Amino acid sequence: MFLHLGGSSGKVGMLLIRRVGLFCRSAHLSPQSLEYRPIKKVMVANRGEIAIRVFRACTELGIRTVAVYSEQDTGQMHRQKADEAYLIGRGLSPVAAYLHIPDIIKVAKENSVDAIHPGYGFLSERADFAQACADAGVRFIGPSPEVVRKMGDKVEARALAIKAGVPVVPGTDAPISSLQEAEDFAKTYDFPIIFKAAYGGGGRGMRVVRDYEELEENYQRAYSEALAAFGNGALFVEKFIEKPRHIEVQILGDKYGNVIHLYERDCSIQRRHQKVVEIAPAAQLDPHLRDRLTSDSVNLAKQVGYENAGTVEFLVDKHGKHYFIEVNSLTNYTMTFSKCRSLPELGLEQDKIQINGCAIQCRVTTEDPSRGFQPDTGRIEVFRSGEGMGIRLDSASAFQGAIISPHYDSLLVKVIASGKDLPTAATKMHRALTEFRVRGVKTNIPFLQNVLSNSQFLYATVDTQFIDENQKLFNLKPTQNRAQKLLHYLGHVMVNGPVTPIPVKAKSSSVDPVVPSVSLGEPPMGFREVLLKEGPEGFARAIRQHQGLLLMDTTFRDAHQSLLATRVRTHDLKKIAPFVSHNFNNLFSLENWGGATFDVAMRFLWECPWKRLQELRALIPNVPFQMLLRGANAVGYTNYPDNAVFKFCEVAKENGMDIFRVFDSLNYIPNMLLGMEAAGTAGGVVEAAISYTGDVSDPMRQKYSLEYYLKLANELVKAGTHILAIKDMAGLLKPEASRLLIGALRDRFPDVPIHVHTHDTAGAGVAAMLACAHAGADIVDVAVDSMAGMTSQPSMGAIVACTKGTKLDTGVSLDRVFDYSEYWEVARGLYAPFDCTATMKSGNADVYENEIPGGQYTNLHFQAHSMGLGNKFKEVKKAYVEANKLLGDLIKVTPSSKIVGDLAQFMVQNSLSRAEVEERADELSFPLSVVEFLQGHIGIPHGGFPEPFRSKVLKSLPRIEGRPGASLPPMDFEALESDLRMAHGDEITPEDVMSAAMYPKVFQEFKEFTSKFGPVDCLNTRLFLDGPKIADEFQVELERGKTLHIKALALGDLNKSGQREVFFELNGQLRSVLVKDTAAMKVTVHSLQWPCLSLLEVKVKPGQKVEKGQPLCVLSAMKMETVVNSPISGIISKVHVNADSSLEGDDLILEITE
């Protein structure tokens, strides 16, 4: 109805009615004996937005206002808006408080209240309340008690409608008193039928029943709802009209028998019989039907002597036949008059009220449409409304800091939009809803926006099944809520410290790196143009024909994996990326993906690895990208079905990857061939990499001889590799060995490009790479100077300088290398908590003895430090040598290097020698990685498995024969995507599916984290790691053209819930977030003891009987997992920890009694 909605056709009525005053009658007296007196004080026996609307009207008229509130509504706005406010219903339930007539009347009398407005719901349709007001000498703003009784009792209202000649839906003549009466009605009129509350509306106490099986349950539910909502569970039954339109006509009546209507509104868009969207006038309503609806409404009102405002409700079936439902005698329109004046005297005559334009009302509620409109509760952290021309807002609880409780209606604000027609009004409404920002609780705004955009809503007619039949309305676009989520993250770091594990106590540098200047325009052409034009084969030919030495820059991946624990963030890579594109276009490739970077991005940096690839590709379009692919393991540490590896390569290529360096940690040819085929099928350049160990220049070391490598290379070239690589992951290639190996490969394969990768742990990396180049290598790996050396790659500047002016000249500018290095020298300071130099001050030539790969060398340092073994690193390195021998002298690169490292640390922790391990192999609880290796999970090592060590460890455990992934069933990507959409919504991408396929648990945790904390990759690294200090001001660029200005203001004290309130200024406005203080919640765990960091799984319970050797739990330190077996047979007497517990060395885990 226009008057209700604030639409155009109600403008005349609205202006007049709201300004004229109060029309109140002493309800218990007859019209002839009414005494009219000025009203000075009005109470509203209600809450929320209707109370505030009445207060506003009274304030305009100079009338003092009184609010009542329940104990749960202490903080609600209606209590604060009124001039006076009084508690009612102390000790009662939240709803019962507003239904407690004696308390309300007592407050009115004690505070000289002249009149009570009932609002809607609660007591508004209770005749006994209207009568109680009259008996107390307080005016009831509404119809007389008799009219309230007649119209509020739907059964009697129905009888009156029949008497007035208004069509009604077949139904019971009186409230039913038993289930049997409902069954009898169903037998007479057949299903479907509907239960309705006899003493209230708003959808509560309503249940549709379609067969006998549903009858009893729906009867009970309807009765229970009606009793809770209205204090009376009486129900009546009607025939249910299928798919009707719900049309309501607004009426006004005076005491002289004058009745007018304010035309109709369409309330058909409803959920569970509650109106969601209302439209006035009803769209595409037949004029003759409109006349019948309005005349029937007026006639019915005259029949009962209706006074004041009211609503007559109808259902209209698909044939245009209308049925009376009920009259709402509630007075929620703030229509009150000061003197005994008639409607004509007030200028309210039917012929003066015209339809002009259209209005729409939407109820914005704190409900989650994606979960069946489940009400959401909590604290509103941010509230910003949509306003502007043609928009009206009615609200009460919509403000920052408001607590949304579960006790009352979920209404947040009513938004009314008006325009010349329905599409215009809908556009205004959509714009206003888009402007809303509500954070802290979920709302139905995305659902309402879908309704407003629906073509049926805009250009056809809708019925009460509109929502049920339009499931696309639930394809909700999620709100990003980025700013508030980032404040939550910053607050969390300020209160609890870094979210990523920090291995050493060091703070990020306070100096920001300066990006060298970059020329405008497109970057110069690079080798990627050759690849795109000529394809992988032509690209390989171009590389082979190139004069001079080519470089692959590892700064974007392996360099920081080796030096900074793989922690470099996309934020810092993106800054320098344009400079690289413009100044290093003649690089062979840029290694920036794969290996450990994939899972670390999600696991510790909380950013998407695919997004990194996409963003870098956009910034560096001219240099080929290269990744590390672990053969059949893709970028994981386990085996995957073949189709998963193929799909991964396909998606990687689509996202901008060019060159796939395919290797296997054991040089196991079947695993390598699968990875090569997957990369080649995807259209990538296949670079088959032979992992190097041993020393081909030492004739005494024959297991990994020159002939071994030549034989492997021959198989890979025959398999069709585009480029042949030597992957020297530990930096074992000495200059002489380089000359022998590369020279032999060049002689054997004159047309195949050769690419060499090494680490500079021993300090001989530059010399070895120069030897490789002179022996015929086409490409060598380097890192920019400030990210080179030690466990990283050889220095780019050194190689460039040493070859300058020779036939191997790289063509790279030394000046640009210096600029590039300067950036990373400062940027590296941001990662001080992860820098290997915190525990390791130099490289070490002992790598020629222990053969520890560069990246692992750094990780072992951190692991030893974190586990209290920092002063025993020398022992760890010695144990690494012994562990390698125990396992048969393996090729050591992820994941085989991790297996050797796990066993080495196990030996150090337990003070075990190689001989002791061999002797006690059948009783020790070995790291899980060691057990799985011996089972054959990563393939078959060169020379086979070590015996009898293998048999003693495995005992009866199963063995895997042949390629591990060959026996795995194909991965069902459609099912996986479906599961992910169910869990995370429809925004799931093919890249997300692949992340979940590679790392299911890590991806799940990543999505949960970003859902809570937002795009933390937008933060600079110092903020990401350490958070801001109080009074720090900074900017965060969410996307191009959208920048947040933030200032950290204060950190609150600990509250009773263990939270601290953190205050910020965001874009000039105060914001705050509540953060759990985890330090205040810690419990110290003070027999079986084990030095470790976290507990993954507890496999036993107190009271359980266990046998010697039975698995008890699984422990984890960094990436090392260990199954702890029972050292004795006995009974578990006590378990001191739970899964995911964080542990320190010597924490008690559980107790066993023999």
Relevant terms:
eight-stranded antiparallel beta sheet; alpha/beta; TIM Barrel; ligase; Rossmann fold; 19% strand; elongated; 40 helices; 1154 residues; 41 strands; BC-like_N; ATP-binding; metal ion binding; Dna Ligase, domain 1
Compact summary:
With 1154 residues, this protein is α/β, with parallel strands linked by helices. Among the domains are: 25-141, Rossmann fold, CATH 3.40.50.20; 170-239, ATP-grasp fold, A domain (Dna Ligase, domain 1, 2-Layer Sandwich); 527-831, Aldolase class I (TIM Barrel, Alpha-Beta Barrel); 1083-1153, Beta Barrel (OB fold (Dihydrolipoamide Acetyltransferase, E2P)), CATH 2.40.50. Helix content is 36%, strand content 19%.
* Helix count from the secondary structure assignment: 40
CATH class of the domain at 527-831, named: Alpha Beta
The CATH superfamily of the domain at 527-831 appears as Aldolase class I
**What's the pLDDT, averaged over the residues?**
89
Output the strand order for the largest sheet. 13-12-9-10-11-14-21-19
Major sheet attributes: 8 strands, antiparallel
What is the tally of beta strands? 41
Shape: elongated
Query: Are there runs of 5+ residues with pLDDT below 50, and where?
Result: 1-34, 332-340, 1082-1092
Structural class: alpha/beta
For the termini, the CA-CA separation is 80 Å
- Roughly how much helix do the residues carry, as a percent range? 25-40%
| The CATH topology of the domain at 527-831 | TIM Barrel
CATH architecture name of the domain at 527-831: Alpha-Beta Barrel
Radius of gyration, whole Å: 39 Å
Kindly estimate the percentage of residues that lie in beta strands according to DSSP. 15-25%
